[in-house]
Design a protein that fits this description.
The chain is α/β, with parallel strands linked by helices. The protein is 42% helix and 16% strand. A 6-stranded parallel sheet has the order 2-1-3-4-5-11. A 6-stranded mixed sheet has the order 7-6-8-9-10-12, with helices on both faces. The two termini are 14 Å apart.
């Protein structure tokens, strides 16, 4: 999951090119693949089915491949779990990999992409720090290597999901995911209700699609009055401060929606601080499906958490890369909402009714 990075520490002509790419990408809104009422894609993507089938039966490659993992982060629970997924794939398929961690900084990622290309790897796993700069890095540096590239975490190049030319794109989060999450919360407002929204970091790709989902759902459900829509920077401390102010201004608040479980802990604390019961007096809809959040859904503190799959994200991205290296590229979109952890549950939404059937791994 990508968050907004720090300010670039250096500035080059190549950085200008990345900025122009980001502005061009922001200029249009791609059409998104629809999801059903439970947030699962209505029609499975062939690439997802191919990757699952390959992983069940493929032998260990004869060659020990060298892979560059161009990560946007490694130091938060989501990204650390994703690194564990890559390690699991490495053990199964026998490849070695080197991590190039950009720490959410597009300028840093540019330098690391250039470094990785100069070293020469058999293939690249690329988690863009941002959609526009990532697209520029792909076209200017990664594609010219002629080596297979699999992208993960977020779409890029203003594509709804798969970017043509890469060996595969593997994501959960995209516009249709947040659309489904927000609509699932708003549809429970069968009478007028006041809602406070907590998003990530202002200016980040995820915050942009989160805002777009809120506007779309608010127009669809007229009972909803979004009285506050603030960035929480994925930080529970920021969420606690922001939600404390909201509850002073709107003591009759009915619902909180959040784009990250860890951040939601701050909202929960603020609700308790004013003597109200989270999940009952004020409903909470969050995203991540972490162990903590699923536990709170079971106990009724949260009403729902939507599923992220960081372990599976990197694992199956690595599988798709091995397929390309072995001459079987899927050249398509691997939708994490079609992976077994979701399909067995039948929904991306973990609720009190189905929480016992979902086993979080982070």
């Amino acid at each position: 999951m990508t968050t907004q990075g720090s300010k670039p520490q250096w500035f080059t002509i190549a950085t200008v090119v990345l900025i122009l790419g980001a502005l061009a990408s922001a200029g249009a809104i791609a059409q998104r693949t629809p999801m059903s009422h439970v947030g699962v894609a209505e029609k499975p993507h062939p690439a997802t089915l191919k990757v699952l089938a390959f992983d069940k039966s493929a032998p260990r490659p004869a060659k020990k491949y060298r892979i560059a993992y161009l990560a946007e982060c490694t130091n938060n629970p989501y990204c650390a779990t994703r690194l564990n997924g890559l390690k699991a794939a490495s053990r199964k398929y026998g490849f070695e990999f080197k991590v190039f961690d950009a720490n959410f900084n597009p300028a840093t990622q540019l330098r690391l992409v250039q470094d990785a290309v100069a070293r020469g790897y058999d293939g690249y796993l690329f988690a863009p720090t941002a959609e526009g700069p990532g697209c520029s890095m792909w076209h200017r540096y990664l594609a010219p290597t002629g080596k297979p590239v699999v992208t993960l975490d977020i779409p890029m190049c203003n594509d709804a999901d798969y970017t043509p030319g890469v060996a595969a794109t593997v994501t959960m989060v995209r516009q249709s995911f947040f659309n489904a999450h927000v609509e699932n919360a708003f549809k429970t407002c069968t009478k007028p209700c006041k809602v406070a929204a907590l998003g990530g970091s202002t200016g980040s790709d995820l915050f942009t699609i989160w805002q777009r989902a809120i506007r779309r759902a608010a127009a669809k459900y007229p009972n909803v009055d979004v009285v506050s829509d603030q960035p929480g920077n994925y930080d529970p401390r920021v969420a606690l401060r922001e939600m404390g102010g909201v509850l002073v201004a709107h003591p009759d608040l009915d619902m909180v929606i959040s784009s990250w479980d860890d951040m939601t802990r701050g909202a929960e604390q603020a609700i308790k601080a004013v003597g109200k019961r989270p999940g009952k007096d004020i409903r909470i809809y969050t995203t991540g499906a972490t162990k903590d959040a699923v536990s709170k859904v079971k106990s009724g503190v949260y009403n729902e958490t939507s599923i992220f799959l960081p372990f599976e994200e990197s694992y199956y991205a690595a599988v798709a890369l091995i397929m390309a290296l072995e001459g079987e590229p899927v050249n398509g979109y691997v939708n994490e909402a079609e992976l077994p952890a979701v399909t067995k549950l039948g929904s991306i939404f973990v609720t009190k009714e189905n929480a016992d059937q979902f086993k979080p791994n982070y």
